[in-house]
């Protein structure tokens, strides 16, 4: 067992302790408690051993009284194995981050990310050590590197060290070893500063112990800004569907690559996507690219796949739409269904006889490109495979080996592709007799007597709700006339937009357990947490991290929060305000969310569907705010909308304006909630149901403002919000009722809470707060 000890002067200790006191508050421990491998006073007789599993309790005042104004301190760390002990002093925090072992974990286990276990980085604090400095007959003991495997550690006597400036210095230290020390250079990680030690010829002391003198040069640690948190191995490409080029695909498996490219080019021919032009015709053309994706894991999961697992790639030919010339008449707007529309349909028609997912194959290739001429150049790699299956293209090859074609369909990559496909699908549904919703233009409804078909659309994914199977099949056959055979997914479990929809006798359950498991595996998190955030969320760290890495992780969590996990919504929303300047503390907070998901991966969003004879539904709106909770003194809004006890919409967002009181902050929150619920009420009325809406507020002054006919707002912005709020409350007949804060479930979307209160509110969000039917 090797031990590295670093003595620092009292001034440096004060700086470290000021930094750590904040961290102690963050982790929920007292200000007198520090994590291991940090700082501890050097006792006169014994040296405190600070390890990863121990917690050192010390009193700051007592330390001053005991050791005087200029005590010496050490930073100590015991490594889990001798193979990882050869670390230099300035890389101390990096070595700890990459090699520390969690309680209960073996040291040989693959190390996690530095942020996976709430490590406290100290690389921003430059260590100061001295080498036999003599000031008024006062000396300080140098760094001592002891090998305690074979000889006992010799405790240095306590000196009285002078206060030195906190800056990196050149250090000469004496290393005592039980054997001859050869000349060597200590290597350090690439992203850290290095310490080089040059061995000198050993000398034999009077006691017969061999010793050597070495020189250590200390360099100020660099700020760590690029954390490679995502694995880049082939396993990630297989498990998480990373795209790669044709050249890389050929390196992986040439046979699978050729099969995928041939299949994609055959599809281009079947759908008559393009036609070649003469090689002598000069036109402005955009480029093309073939994107590859490993789908072997999806094929193996298919229940009809019984063959020996082989590499399976998927190829996609895309056009370089960034080179496309656009004008103001070109329309590229392509809407997708709102998530609250899907949840509202699930809450109302969750007991429908038919709930199926329809997938249109090669959706964009069904849309005609007739509004303008677009020419595309096929690169030589694509042409080399194209002429194998379609030899007629040989006479169109140009001098550079490419073939220029004119697009006839909305190929992937074209800026208008999404818009043209939506218009094509919309025209087919309207021809059958569907009516497009005025609230959500991606919801289409068809009625024939008491039979109905509701069809929300998201690009090429359609979700069918119907109480008559024959009518649903009739609609599907109508679409198949133009779009070919649809992929139909039905049964007790279907997957729509990355969410598993599970049917039961009560209604529907929405789960993303598989997505959570992939997230946990991708970022290597094995520990657990009982809440998604602590007060650490509010504090900003000192070490900058890679902004793209932070955004990538946060957006994956936001996708989960917006779909089925409102219990992590506030933590994700608050971290989203740090995207432009993320720090190590923000990354640690992200990892805590994953730990919480690891604990609650079996949680799901429950939708108890209405009975078939219900014609009136109840809407409950819970609106709350956290006053001046951001560093710029802006408040945070949170609201929940429930239909007969089922959560159908929720939001957690930083307010856009600064309010001067909690009453005004609550007014802004209630205004945003009511503005959203008006659209839901209109949607419910389109579904031939009536509504009764009640808004709950825990601020009496806000209730008096919205119920008082005279508005006395301090600013025009708040005055407009108040008047608009009053208008919507009157138009949609929404009552505003006082609710105690202990029962305000939107509170979990505005601030960090824990304990029984968090469990109560998160359960209300996921499984319903009010069961009216």
Fold and architecture overview:
There is one protein chain. The chain is an alpha+beta fold and 773 residues long. It is 31% helix and 21% strand. Strands 11, 12, 13, 14, 16 and 17 form a 6-stranded mixed sheet that branches. It has a 6-stranded antiparallel sheet with strand order 18-19-20-21-15-22, sandwiched between helices. Strands 29-28-27-30-31 form a 5-stranded mixed sheet, sandwiched between helices. Helix 12 packs across helix 15 (584-599) and helix 16 (662-686) packs across helix 17. The radius of gyration is 33 Å and the shape is globular. Residues 1-10, 17-240 and 303-308 have low confidence and may be disordered.
Question: Briefly, what is this?
Answer:
With 773 residues, this protein is α+β, with helices and mostly antiparallel strands.
């Amino acid at each position: 067992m090797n031990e590295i000890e670093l003595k620092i002067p009292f001034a440096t200790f004060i700086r470290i302790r000021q930094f750590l006191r904040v961290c102690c508050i963050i982790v929920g421990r007292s200000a007198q408690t520090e994590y291991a491998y940090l700082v501890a006073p050097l006792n006169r007789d014994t040296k405190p051993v600070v390890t990863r599993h121990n917690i050192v309790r010390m009193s700051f005042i007592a330390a001053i009284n005991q050791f005087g104004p200029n005590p010496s301190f050490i930073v100590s760390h015991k490594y889990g194995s001798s193979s990882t002990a050869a670390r230099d002093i300035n890389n101390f925090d990096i070595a700890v981050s990459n090699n520390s072992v969690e309680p209960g974990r073996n040291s040989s286990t693959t190390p996690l990310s530095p942020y996976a276990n709430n490590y406290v980085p100290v690389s921003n604090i430059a260590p100061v050590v001295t080498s036999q400095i003599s000031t008024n007959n006062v000396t300080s003991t140098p760094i001592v590197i002891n090998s305690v495997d074979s000889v006992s550690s010799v405790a240095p006597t306590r000196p009285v060290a002078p206060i030195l400036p906190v800056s990196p210095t050149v250090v000469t230290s004496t290393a005592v070893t039980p054997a001859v020390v050869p000349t060597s250079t200590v290597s350090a990680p690439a992203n850290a500063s290095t310490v080089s030690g040059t061995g000198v010829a050993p000398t034999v002391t009077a006691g017969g112990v061999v010793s050597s003198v070495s020189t250590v040069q200390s360099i100020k640690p660099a700020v760590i800004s690029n954390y490679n948190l995502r694995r880049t191995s082939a396993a990630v490409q297989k498990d998480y569907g990373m795209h790669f080029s044709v050249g890389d695909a050929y390196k992986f498996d040439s046979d699978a690559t050729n099969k995928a490219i041939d299949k994609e080019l055959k599809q281009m021919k079947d759908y008559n996507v393009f036609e070649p032009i003469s090689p002598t015709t000069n036109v402005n053309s955009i480029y093309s690219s073939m994107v590859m994706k490993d789908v072997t894991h999806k094929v193996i999961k298919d229940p009809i796949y019984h063959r020996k697992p082989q590499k399976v790639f998927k190829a996609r030919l895309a056009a370089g739409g960034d080179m496309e010339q656009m004008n103001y008449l070109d329309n590229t707007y392509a809407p997708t269904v709102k998530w609250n529309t899907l949840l509202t349909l699930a809450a109302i028609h969750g007991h429908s006889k038919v709930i199926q997912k329809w997938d249109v194959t090669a959706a964009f290739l069904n849309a005609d490109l007739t509004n303008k001429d677009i020419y595309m150049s096929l690169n030589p790699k694509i042409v080399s495979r194209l002429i194998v299956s379609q030899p007629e293209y040989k006479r169109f090859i140009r001098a550079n080996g490419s073939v220029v074609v004119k697009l006839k369909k909305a190929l992937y990559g074209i800026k208008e592709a999404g818009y043209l496909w939506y218009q094509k699908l919309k025209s087919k549904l309207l021809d059958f007799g569907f009516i497009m919703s005025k609230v959500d233009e991606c919801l289409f409804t068809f009625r024939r007597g008491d039979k109905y078909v509701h069809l929300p659309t998201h690009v090429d994914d359609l979700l069918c709700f119907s109480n008559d199977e024959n009518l649903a099949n009739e609609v599907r056959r109508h679409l198949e006339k133009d779009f070919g055979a649809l992929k139909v997914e039905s049964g007790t479990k279907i997957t729509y937009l990355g969410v598993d929809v599970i049917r039961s006798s009560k209604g529907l359950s929405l789960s993303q357990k598989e997505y959570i498991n992939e997230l946990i595996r991708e970022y290597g998190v094995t520990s657990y947490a009982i809440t998604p955030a602590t007060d650490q969320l509010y504090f900003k760290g000192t070490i900058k991290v890679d902004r793209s890495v932070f955004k990538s992780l946060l957006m994956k969590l936001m996708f989960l929060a917006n779909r089925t996990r409102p219990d992590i919504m506030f933590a994700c929303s608050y971290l989203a305000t740090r995207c432009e300047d993320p720090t190590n503390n923000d990354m640690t907070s992200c990892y805590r969310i994953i730990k919480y998901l690891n604990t609650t991966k079996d949680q799901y969003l429950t939708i108890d569907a209405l009975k078939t004879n219900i014609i009136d539904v109840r809407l409950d709106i819970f609106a709350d705010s956290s006053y001046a909770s951001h560093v710029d003194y802006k408040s945070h809004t949170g609201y929940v909308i429930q239909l007969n006890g089922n959560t159908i919409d929720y939001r957690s967002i930083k307010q856009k304006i600064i309010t001067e009181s909690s009453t005004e902050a609550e007014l802004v929150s209630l205004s945003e909630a009511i503005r959203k619920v008006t659209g839901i009420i209109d949607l419910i009325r389109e579904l031939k149901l009536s509504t009764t809406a009640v808004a709950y507020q825990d601020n009496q002054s806000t209730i008096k403002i919205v119920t008082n006919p005279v508005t006395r707002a301090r600013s025009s912005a708040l005055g407009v919000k108040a008047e608009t709020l009053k208008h919507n409350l009157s138009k949609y007949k929404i009552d505003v009722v006082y609710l105690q804060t202990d029962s305000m479930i939107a509170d979990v979307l505005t601030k960090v809470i824990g304990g029984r209160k968090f469990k109560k509110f998160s359960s209300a969000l996921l499984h319903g707060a009010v069961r009216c039917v």
